[in-house]
Amino acid sequence: MNGAQSLFKALVDAGLTTCFANPGTSEMQLVYEIGRNDKVRAVLCLQEDVVTGAADGYGRMTGMPAFTLLHVASGFANGIAMLHNAGRANTPLVNVVGANASYHQPNFPEHELINGRITDFTRVVSHWSAEARSASELGELGAQAAALAKTGKLCTIVAPTNRHWDEANPPPAMPEAQGLPRVAGEAVATAAAMLKNGRKTGLVLGNRALHGAALETAAEIAAATGASLLAETFASRYLARGAGRPVIETIPYEFEMGVKFLSGFEQLVFVGAAFPVATFAYRNKPMYKTPADCALFTMASVSEDMDDALARLSQELAAAGAKVPRNGRAAGEAPKGALTAGSIGQSLALLMPENAILVDEAATNGMAIIEATKQAAPHDYLNPLNGGAIGGGLPMALGAAIACPARKVVHLQADGSGMYTVQALWSMARERADVVIVLLKNDAYSILDLELARVRDGAANSRMMALTSLGDPTLDWVSIATGLGVPASRASSAEDFHARFKAALGSKGPQLIECQLPITAEWRALEDYVQKNR
Amino acid sequence: MNGAQSLFKALVDAGLTTCFANPGTSEMQLVYEIGRNDKVRAVLCLQEDVVTGAADGYGRMTGMPAFTLLHVASGFANGIAMLHNAGRANTPLVNVVGANASYHQPNFPEHELINGRITDFTRVVSHWSAEARSASELGELGAQAAALAKTGKLCTIVAPTNRHWDEANPPPAMPEAQGLPRVAGEAVATAAAMLKNGRKTGLVLGNRALHGAALETAAEIAAATGASLLAETFASRYLARGAGRPVIETIPYEFEMGVKFLSGFEQLVFVGAAFPVATFAYRNKPMYKTPADCALFTMASVSEDMDDALARLSQELAAAGAKVPRNGRAAGEAPKGALTAGSIGQSLALLMPENAILVDEAATNGMAIIEATKQAAPHDYLNPLNGGAIGGGLPMALGAAIACPARKVVHLQADGSGMYTVQALWSMARERADVVIVLLKNDAYSILDLELARVRDGAANSRMMALTSLGDPTLDWVSIATGLGVPASRASSAEDFHARFKAALGSKGPQLIECQLPITAEWRALEDYVQKNR
Questions:
Q1: CATH match for A3-165 among 1.10.3730.10, 3.90.230.10, 3.90.1170.40, 3.40.50.970
Q2: Measured between beta carbons, which residues in chain B are less than 8 angstroms from residue A72?
Q3: Are A401 and A435 spatial neighbours (Cβ–Cβ below 8 Å)?
Q4: Where does the secretion signal sit in this chain (chains A, B) (predicted)?
Q5: B55-73, pLDDT tens digit by residue?
Q6: pTM of the entire structure?
Q7: N or C: lower Cβ tally within 10 Å for chain B?
Q8: Which residue of B has its CA nearest to A234?
Q9: What pLDDT does A439 receive?
Q10: Beta-bridge partners for A271
Q11: CA separation, residue A331 to residues A38, A325, A334, A357, A500 (Å)
Q12: From the list A165, A281, A419, which residue is nearest B283 (CB)?
């Protein structure tokens, strides 16, 4: 066998079944291997942030890595932003990045970099990254990467073409994963003591603690101790929510909202969750959303056995069987009148089918929708923004649909971030991905209008707004989506959206509904507030 | 003044007048500065490869750097591919990349990288890169970067937010540029000796030697000595061509075509041009397109004074006044019948106005068109592929149109690479960029079908083709472009294209004409050839 075959066998033997790809010359041996058998589903994407963002969505939903095929430094670079999100979310993922033959790189052909090598890029956004020094090593790296990725790591293999075509050994067998390490008893005891000390406490969950048995256990602990059950700002992996699921509040992204939300908390206990720091520092403002004297304690990190830690904490607190507050089920009439975020939220809450996957890149349009869907039928919620890079929504919805073909994906997509990775629509059409895209259009990077308000004296002028507004020309998403093969329509009112959304849920395959939304008075008021309090 | 003001003043004082941007929170102080005065034209782009690719096009046409605003590591990463092209082309360019406040980065907010810092990315694709350690240094770096960029360097400044808002000194005055170094007399003498030794010789030009006085001087040298006048495979900066311009042949990209083209050459003299190496090494094939015993000599590199070197060489060879072979002017009837690359080439040759800018990302569709336009009215020719990263065409056409608002840009765009940066269409609409896009659609990454033929045994199957074909669904570029604000239509025949192209040339602003083209028999024959000779 050659190196490409050894690598391919390593990945397939490790149980990897899905490849998101935008290949080039240096990946052709792998394209050939993928084509010669039927062990891997390969999904072509027209730009690499779609490749990597889809792999992120796939890995979050299945807990298993997809692998990507990326073409040399430029192709990898095009996918870095979504890899950064995936890495910060600890998504299982294996990248295979082609490179020129090792002996040809010194001739400085076009793809060689001015000041470095591909691995200078790959290591920065990967937990683990290595370049194959022989064809046999390519198979070895494949086995290592797949095993490590399954523990929630982002792994990248750089594969020069001569490592593909040279003769290679079969890949080594990898030992079974040992499971994640248990946290020390002292950590559990500390968390238990905090939860019993009578202070105002939040139990903040992230990653694998946001769903399944871990979430239920954590909810019982919160109920038994009177702590608030909180979710990290950007749920990594996914959050189980909707009717019947435990009530859990997400710490708001926007700085002032986050500060207000966390005011009064005296201590926070973290389980696999990121600390609630400000995404950006602002001049003369604190860096944490927590009160200055709030104690922060991580009982278990994402790299430790959170399920076990929560079970032990529950036992220590005798929390099993505590009555958990659960979300109710939305009821009432279909919304009528003007199309608003509130009316869309109401429609989703009423219509989303059980076991749907809700993907959220609604950005500033989404708050009312996300709030309302707490009372939708039980569903899983995904948010790509763990690394702050926008554009992850459409790829994530694609990846989730590939991961879970029997489930309906409902995707909330803002216009500005949606344009980053609009190419994902084509792959959705090609793969008949079962996604209903609710395209929330406000013709602006609204978050930037808020951020501009923090630095400007007086009103914004048209020259400033030219760098935050998307209104000239307005984007016609119906036309764009149709051109990329996704049936699309435009909702003109609340009842029109309700009917279109219901119809879309009733058929298979991707569809897009464009929804023009006003910038709300509440948002403008927040702009005024931060401008006056800068 | 604050750091943002010092940086802005440094760039404006250095003569930079154009900014391509996709800003975020960390760049808001600069957005505010841009808005407070009218010294800089700011162009919003919806994805960062459009930002950087447009800056590449602008810098090539004006010889002056544009500056970019890019948002933190993810935003910079999104623009790396087109920066790599620009860097390999030695385009003048200054990037300003925002970053979180230096004191907040250790808190590991979302945008911080798993294994490094923004500068780990920036240095790899920049000739020069630095992070500001104080607000005053931000202005200093701006002055340095602008001065260095003007010599054909790609320069990147990383600017944490606290360096923007802290109090700063005005930027320092920079000494006038000293000009590029003269090449040694020995180098000119060696080139002269080679050109007189009677061997079959090519004079290979690149970058600034491809236009203006340098091109005319080189053409006289070739004419006087019997050497062939050649252009590097991907013209960096731009190539002056069309009727009345010196005849110059471009070394083909595709490996076998390049080898055939260069067979028989005994020596090549390079002036600012890249060596004709294979873009990728192939198993058991040579790495150079030149014959094994062909001598290669670089008289002047892109970092040296090519004009001066050519003038001295001309003097040594007494070449001034030699009769230069010049391109004729296309004549004849408008093409009729089926729409083909040949017919499109004929239309362009007849209709392109004098002083047009022809941007070429036609890829495998383009050979016949590019050949035919040699006899169009005199024009300048741009090709973004110096770094091998596809997707540079639409951004480059945007940047060229911003750089030269009085000139018509004609842009040849293949479908696969066009989808990489399709967002550029929106900025063209917004800026009323005077670009006619000829969209060449063959529903495939044809170059990859060729590359697959090099590695496969037997025919390609549908699973392999699924990673190289764009046919399911077919892209509707008329719908996509219209949705992004660019008027678009579809040509159904040679005469229909001719009429649509003529009409588009007669009006201002962006327009797109979709042209469905067959994969040619010649291309299929080449696939067969490489498959049999692998």
A1: 3.40.50.970
A2: 388
A3: yes
A4: none
A5: 999 999 999 999 999 999 9
A6: 0.98
A7: C
A8: B110
A9: 98
A10: A205, A300
A11: 46, 18, 9, 20, 19
A12: A165
